[in-house]
Amino acid sequence: MFSEIPDRIYRYQRFSALSLDALCLDKLYFSDPNVFNDPLDCQPAIEPDSDNEALRLILRTLIEQRVTLEVLASLKNANIEGNNANIHSEKQAHQTAENTIQSIAYYATEPDIAPSVEEAERYSLANEIKKELLKQINRGVCCLSQEYDNPLLWSHYGDQHHGFCVGYTLNRNPKPKINKVLYGGLRTIKTSLISEAILNKNSEAKEELDKNIWLRKAEPWGYEKEWRIFNTVGLMDSPLLLSEITFGLRCSYPVMYSVIAALKPRDIKFYQMYFSGNSFELDRSEADVDLLCTELPHKSRSGFEAFGPPHEE
Fold it and tell me: In degrees to the nearest 10, what's the CA dihedral of 240, 246, 251, 255?
């Protein structure tokens, strides 16, 4: 298992107008987990180890929490706030939860769904609890790695070495929290844990619940040595300190020049990857920024412009 809290974490990227914009503005993109390349990522399986009455209470609480916030936000946009807004949002939330639970109970009577009505209702309640968990915990995720020299990460995320790898430290005030991804185990979350976290507001249970939703991945992804930070979905100010850029083996000089010229005023180190001896390992050396900025941008010249007109013998 990789070490706790690394000094630096890295984000592999392809070069594009968007990635250059993000560097210049010192922002990070936080992705919606629903678009991750691994469809199992952030998709827990709910195991109902509570009775149906407890499952109804969990589902009711989750729905009421979500709908209350949604209605209040909608009313606020319409400049409606205060006690009446609170009463209306609570009424809407209660009715939405009640309608959902009644609908589940009704469809559970279908004879072909499960061996019994109770089991059918149990399955549907667990399924709705999963949906509600993912609806109300609307987070954006930024994925980073502990390594800058991982050949697979360069190929998968660094545009096959045509891109670059951005290095960050945690030297900010306040110090950002980064979360280590856990590899292996099961996607299962028991409803007893959800009940303890949501209904009893147990902080340890809440931390365990979040960890199992947001930080557990299949064992084969372990090569990424991934760490995550969370925010709302979209382009957000970086909570990390940008400290270095490493260019891939195939990264072109114009791309390197563009990134260096954009960031040169900041205290950032620039590196280039290279082959390490006869092995498959990668290493890096500091880029010659002065030489690169002297040779570029290049200006094309004709033979006449470069050497003057030909001399007659």
Answer: 50
